[in-house]
Design brief:
The chain is an alpha+beta fold. It is built from three helices and nine strands.
């Protein structure tokens, strides 16, 4: 499956889940969310990427907007749980193709390994991402 993953990564969209802060800190890069205009300082290296995605499925928010629900691998689930335990009260920067797309504030540890992505411009964009990250 290594070859299939490499081929998918070469043509698909990239996901990066990064620790972030609401204030400047050494080693972090400033980024602005294109939808909210919120400015964050993001760790340059992701702790999770699309290779940590076990399953991706389409869903809709209560107000009918498209969403992609990611279920992480066992290793990804453990990484996300550890990250969210140590980063309570801080944002979790979710980058798609290098662009800051979501930055939810971590209110409690995420132990189930599931991440909901919202804020897509179109249904087609969400469907394409879900398709790219299916394994």
């Amino acid at each position: 499956s290594g070859c299939a993953s490499e081929a998918r990564l070469a043509t698909g969209h990239q996901l990066g889940i990064h620790p972030a802060r609401t204030a400047s800190a050494d080693g972090l890069q400033a980024m602005t969310d294109r939808h909210s205009g919120v400015r964050l300082w993001v760790a340059p290296q992701p702790v999770l990427t699309e290779v940590d995605v076990q399953q991706a499925e389409m869903a809709f928010t209560p107000d009918g907007q498209p969403a992609v629900i990611l279920t992480l691998t066992d290793a990804g689930r453990a990484t996300l749980a550890a990250l969210t335990r140590t980063q309570l009260g801080q944002p979790l920067a979710i980058l798609i193709d290098g662009e800051l797309r979501l930055a939810p504030i971590i209110r409690e540890p995420v132990l189930d390994g599931r991440v909901a992505l919202t804020g897509f411009d179109t249904l087609e964009e969400a469907e394409q991402l879900a398709g790219d990250w299916l394994q």
